Amino acid sequence: MRKQLVLTGATLLATVLAVSSCGTRAEEATGGSGETATKVAKIGVIAPLSGDLSALGLGIQNAVDLAVKQANEKGTIPGWTLEIDPQDDQALPDTGKNAATKLAGDDEVVGVVGTLNSSVAQSVQPVLSGANIAQVSPANTNPTLTKGADPASPKRSYPGYFRTCTTDDVQGPFAARYLLDQGIKKVATIHDKKAYGQGLVAAFTDAFKSGGGTIVQAETINPDDKDFSAVISKVKGAGPEAVYYGGEFPQSGPLAQQARAAGLDVPVMGGDGMYTPSYIELAGKTSEGDLATSVGAPVETLDSAKQFVTDYAAGGYDQPYEAYGAYAYDAANAIINGLKVSLASAADAKSARQATIDAIGKVSFDGASGPVAFDEFGDNTTKILTVYKVTDGKWKADKTGS
């Protein structure tokens, strides 16, 4: 009888341990809370999160963060949790390349939103492309990023690169037509020698000349210049009716302020890199009447953007979404729409990278900025622009068109 009791006890103990063990494994499979465990896929962000252009970069980061949070809340991709991985490129090509290398080395990264600067994109593209990671920029406008260096024979170098904004070969001519329509026939150009600024001025110049205008002086500055007196003197001597600047607000604001102080009292016009309240702060009260083109129609006027504007405000972000927020939101959602397809049967994030690129190329949806779809080069098929004018100390839309 004693032997039988011992055997019965041992059997009972074994049964208890087995049940306990099964229970532990069941908890592990559900994350210990009854919820099915999810796999992780990351969307990186490469943008200037510090330095002079951080206002624009943080607006991009926040918009991507909003898109990722919304996708997770809605359970957009069953079995998967999305995460954002922001990297600061400081608006520098080498720093951007290092950020791309870091993201490419993370097996959970399947897409990247960025960059802000076209010159940084040139360093980032080959790194992300080499790892088959999709890149969708909300702000790069240099045409060569999608069509190569020869506009007469466009060729797509990086099939994983897309953008939700329009390009300088559209933006430059749009600005040229605007000035010509205002009766301005003589313009001086200045650019900062970077890919964005140089490309913008080249596109503007060709269109302005074709429309009957004259470039009376063509000058350049260095991105780190603070004193623009020499260039201003040359430009002033040429007698322009306006100055067209290719570059960003940290330089164009002080340049405009110094030009007015030197007696060059003509409008300064630039591209989307100037379209920010920070330009007006730097240029001062004499910026009244200055002009900038920017991608798309004014976000605040778009029915398609109303929900984005409301949700961004409710998100409690410390910074405004700035010029590229809606385009960054759409860029993130382009990736997320691609992930709906690529992650549906994927074992892990890395194995879905090429499928994500393929799926993004086929997306078509109504974004905050308007319809989003990509052509054979990766450019957005929607090409709308707006000219803004500084009026009563604020940027106000003056003309929207395509």
TrEMBL record:
<comment type="similarity">
    <text>Belongs to the leucine-binding protein family.</text>
</comment>
<keyword id="KW-0732">Signal</keyword>
<protein>
    <submittedName>
        <fullName>Amino acid/amide ABC transporter substrate-binding protein, HAAT family</fullName>
    </submittedName>
</protein>
<dbReference type="Pfam" id="PF13458">
    <property type="entry name" value="Peripla_BP_6"/>
</dbReference>
<feature type="domain" description="Leucine-binding protein">
    <location>
        <begin position="42"/>
        <end position="393"/>
    </location>
</feature>
<keyword id="KW-0029">Amino-acid transport</keyword>
<dbReference type="InterPro" id="IPR028082">
    <property type="entry name" value="Peripla_BP_I"/>
</dbReference>
<dbReference type="InterPro" id="IPR028081">
    <property type="entry name" value="Leu-bd"/>
</dbReference>
<dbReference type="GO" id="GO:0006865">
    <property type="term" value="P:amino acid transport"/>
</dbReference>
<keyword id="KW-0813">Transport</keyword>
<dbReference type="InterPro" id="IPR000709">
    <property type="entry name" value="Leu_Ile_Val-bd"/>
</dbReference>
